[in-house]
Design a protein that fits this description.
The chain has helices spanning about 5-15, 20-25, 45-65, and strands at about 5, 35, 40. It is α+β, with helices and mostly antiparallel strands. It has one domain (about 5-65). It has a three-stranded antiparallel β-sheet with strand order 1-3-2. α1 packs across α2 (about 20-25). The protein is globular, with a radius of gyration of 13 Å. It starts with a strand and ends with a helix. The relative contact order is 0.18.
Length: about 60
């Protein structure tokens, strides 16, 4: 899984706990995240994908209101 980011690395980048990152991954917040055994791995562009998904969700919520 060369190039993928570990939960610990992503937690450091986002300044979150590893548990929070894992919970968000389980909830689908990080598109492209995969689980290998009991460990999450994130594609290198995970931050771009998460930001794009977040914008799409906010846009849908505004339209519904």
């Amino acid at each position: 899984m060369s190039g993928y980011i570990s939960t610990a690395e992503l937690a450091g980048i986002l300044q979150m706990t590893e548990q929070t990152v894992s919970q968000k991954a389980k909830a689908g917040f990080f598109p492209g995240a995969i689980k290998l055994g009991n460990k999450w791995r994130f594609p290198p562009d995970v931050l771009d994908r998460a930001a794009a998904a977040s914008v799409a969700v906010r846009t849908r919520k505004r339209r519904a209101a």
